[in-house]
Known about the structure:
Structural class: alpha+beta
Radius of gyration: 16 Å
CATH superfamily: Peptide deformylase
CATH class: Alpha Beta
Amino acid sequence: MSFDPNPTHQPEIAQLGDPVLRQKAHLITQYQDLQLQTLIDDLLITVKQAHGVGIAAPQVSQSLQLFIVASRPTLRYPYAPVMEPMPMLNPRILSSSQTKVKDWEGCLSVPNHRGLVPRHQTIQVEYCDRHGQLQTATLTDFVARIFQHEYDHLQGIVFVDRVEDPQDLISEAEYQTLITEKVK
């Protein structure tokens, strides 16, 4: 697998319609590869600069099983909990709760749109950290939602595929109106 990280610029985010977003991502085998480590650093910078709460390698045209979960309050997600950004390589969902919750999601690869998406409220996951060490975690609520959203990117699935009713797809402007009214 070839990499194209360029540390002198922020990677461009692939947009809906780009074939890389519909491919199943490749397993990572060389955790200490310098280009992989640079890609992880680039993703950490990109998600912060783009005001996202997660980003997957396919979103920067790298078909690899890697994503960042970086929950924090932003304009797009004002109620997000704060956590240290976590690179997750070769992630897997081991189990999930029966309970699903619908909530609004957006995506850096689908700008200006939001969709009401059902996700498992609690998931048990495993992944390798950036050094190749196997980790397990139980994730709940918003952080579980981010993981599932990013995990979908590794399977070639975009959040709009998970929207159950076309009326549950709205513009970012309409979503901002909804959350502004929620605060009142």
